[in-house]
Design a protein that fits this description.
By secondary structure, the protein is an alpha/beta fold. It has three domains: about 270 residues, Rossmann fold (3-Layer(aba) Sandwich); about 150 residues, Isoleucyl-tRNA Synthetase, Domain 1; about 50 residues, no CATH class. The protein contains 16 helices and 15 strands. The protein binds one RNA strand through helix 1, helix 6, helix 8, strand 12 and helix 11.
Amino acid sequence: MKQDLFVYNTLTRKKEKFKAINAPHVGMYVCGPTVYSDAHLGNCRTYISFDIIFRYLNHLGYKVRYVRNITDAGHLEGDADEGEDKISKKAKLAKLEPMEIAQKYTVGFHDVMQILNILPPSIEPLATGHVIEQIELVKTILEKGYAYEVDGSVYFDVEKYNSTNDYGVLSGRNLDDLLTNTRSLGGQQEKRGKLDFALWIKAKPETLMKWPSPWSVGLPGWHLECSAMSEKYLGEHFDIHGGGIDLIPTHHTNEIAQNMAACGKTPANYWVHTNMLTVNGQKMSKSLGNSFLPHELFSGENSILNKGYSPMTVRFFMLQAHYRSTLDFSNDAMEASEKGFKRLMNSFGLLKDLKASSTTEVEIKSLSDRCYEAMNDDFNSPVLIAELFEASRIINSVYDGKLKIDAENLELLKQLMNSFVLDVLGLKDEQAAGDDLPQVLNFIVNLRNEAKSSQDYATSDKIRNGLQQIGIQLKDTKEGTNWTKI
RNA sequence: GGUCAGAUGGCCGAGCGGUUAGGCACAGGUCUGCAAAACCUGAUACAGCGGUUCAAGUCCGCUUCUGACCUCCA
């Protein structure tokens, strides 16, 4: 059942058999958020995708060290390296300390991650906490001759690097194309080549976040932190490096160059990239103005939305598409997911009430195999979900007494649903009402059943309609009356 | 302009050489006081034009359209 796992590797543009360097240990690094504003829904999709990968590797028995950084400094804005640090810029506007901004959005990010049931990574390092490591890395790259210093700033020499390495391995672009098609930006007199990028930036008088270094008081370049922190926690060469597909051409390309220049090793075996969330066919992004925040989606408070959708509906919606495909957001698609998710969870809830027969008309093993097959094929969650709907159909049929299942298969079915719905997909039942609602409802349901058995349908319908209006739906079955929250 | 991806039924989305993915919506049926749910059955599909093959959404070429990246982005 645990056949080989295949993972699509951006480096080779193929699905490759996954082989951990140090099995059962797996090192995985994913580029985390820059905490200068709220994470929008598109950001969330990436972290949900890697959450599934993390969860499935764990499920297969790997011991995963999952490192996802927080960029709380060093991420420049505007034209290449001439801009200001994003965090500092925001801080000046709001008259806040940079760390105050970083703290605020870090807390917000964690909240959203938790609401969406995304597991925390094993290590979540901060860029500001690793300036020393970053400075050391710059020193090494300078020593190896792949960088040069100009007036307190240090730049990576891309053309020199490309003479002995392939700078475009990940993006599939060659240097000539890049050179001829890259816009020449102003204010870059210090750089020798137009593709060169900053490793260390000398602080300007107005720079708020700055650290001493051998070259100047300044700040590290953005690409540096991931190289420094992945090496610190996962070593020079680890298993999986991930991030959004939009990080390929610049951030990850530069990261590889830094690592190769410093130690001659490409950081990771498998490069995994998640695709974008689109709205009406266009990438969701802040600059296009079509992005919205998770809490707006939950509450429905955004003009794009007809209504709010629960966090698990959002998660389910995203898992119904493969992580490497673009996923288009629409109200219709959300509503379809909402109903589908309810259907799945409804049958999941029925599982505990199923009775085993002495014979069986279903065989769960092959269904289970197909679930593993789906996930082993580059984490194909939509196919997994299709299989789980088959399980759902079986559960409902058994519950209705239309299908027989024996104890052994029932146990397998329970294991299957628990493993895949809860552990791997990370879905959870949002209907589980705490408090004392069940008792109150049972009382009301009993009242209605009394009316029903005396054929007082006027009263029984009145009760049912009344509950419907406050969001409780009653369903009469052979075994009695059930209720669910709508 | 350059580079790279896509175009699948009313909608969302898998599949990528031969066998109806799945969900939502729709139609018919079973059950039920009626609903709802559930179950059964059904109809719609692979952008266009050529080619390869016994066989092509699935491979190749061209055309059209869309998107991403080339500048910060998950």
